[in-house]
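QA checklist item 7 of 12: single-chain prediction sanity check.
[x] sequence parsed
[x] length recorded as 173
[x] structure emitted
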Amino acid sequence: PEPDLVRRPGPVRLLSVGRLVPFKGFDVLIDACAELRGSAFDCEIIGDGPLRHELHARASERKVAIHFSGERSQNEVLAALQSCDIFVLASRVDERAASDVFPTVIAEAMACGKPVVSTRVAGIPELVVNGETGLLVSPGDVRALAAAIRQLMSDEDLRARFGRAGRERIEEN
C-alpha cells in the first residue's frame, strides 16, 4: 500500500533489522547512537543472533537506550518499518570477509517510503542512491553514521523527499 508519510508526534524513531552478527554493524549503530546523545530519538533493533548479549552490554556501557526487540514475524517487521522515521543499517565487511550482499530489508524500508542511512558495502549502493533515497557512509565510520542520522533527524522534509524517492525507485526497479 501507499505509505503513510504523516509523522506521529514524539522522538524520531530509528529502526534497524537483521541477524545480530558482526557484518550487520549493530555495534557501530550503538556507538553512533551514543554520539547522538542529547537528541530526541528512539532506536529499535529487531533481530537475534550470537552477538545479542555483547550488543546489550555495549548499549548499557555507553548508556544508550536501545530497544532490542528480538526475532519478530514478517508482519511485525513490516509494522515496525511502517512506523519508523529512518531506517538504518550499518553493514560492513567482517573479519572473515562476510558482508550483506543485497539486504532485502533495505528494499522493504524503501517500499514503505522510509529514508535509509546505510553504508557503501556490496550491493547497498545499487539500492540506496546517496543524496536521493538516503545517505551512505563508509563502513565502520561511527561519526559519519551519526552525522547522517542527525542530518535526517533534523530535516523532516528531507526525510519525506528521500522516502518518496525510495518508494518510487522500488516501484520502478
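[x] summary fact logged: The longest strand covers residues 12-17.
[ ] second reviewer sign-off
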